Amino acid sequence: MRIIRNASGTFRGAGPAGLSCAFYLAEKGYKPVVFEKNERPGGMLTYGIPSFKLQKDVIEAEVEVIRLMGAEFRYGVEVGRDVTLAELREQAARPGTPETPPTRCDPPSLR
User: Fold this and answer.
1) 3-4 vs 104-105, strand pairing mode
2) Sequence-separated (6 or more) residues with CB below 8 Å from residue 93
């Protein structure tokens, strides 16, 4: 696996795993793009846990923190229906800009 700096990681699902991934990528300086087929983030946190146990504004506040860190959320978009994997791969093949070309690095865990 290769990580491309100055690139945006694209993945689907704004559930607990997707939010965690977006948080840690943004923390490392990436600009993750999260595709969520529902109109609200959180997955089972939002749709499966009753509000008296986990208030929805808490989830929205956490998502706002991740968004302010540099993540982009696209709601109402289903990967495979609204955007194809081929389109996502094409976007990923053009990381960086002429001013800041991408650099590659291998994570220490994969060396």
Assistant:
1) antiparallel
2) none
Query: Which two three-digit tokens encode residue 47?
Result: 């749709």
Structure-token pair, residue 29: 């300086």
Q: Which amino acid is at 101?
A: P
Distance between CA atoms of 25 and 30, rounded to whole angstroms? 5
Helix (H, G, I), strand (E, B), or coil: what is residue 18?
helix
Distance CA 69, CA 17 (A): 17
- For 100, the token pair is 């800041």
Task: Tell me: pLDDT of 2 over 50.
Answer: no
Residue labelled with tokens 């600009």: 31
Q: Which residue has the tokens 């994997």?
A: 85
pLDDT tens-digit readout, 53-101: 999 999 999 999 999 999 999 999 888 888 888 887 777 655 554 445 5
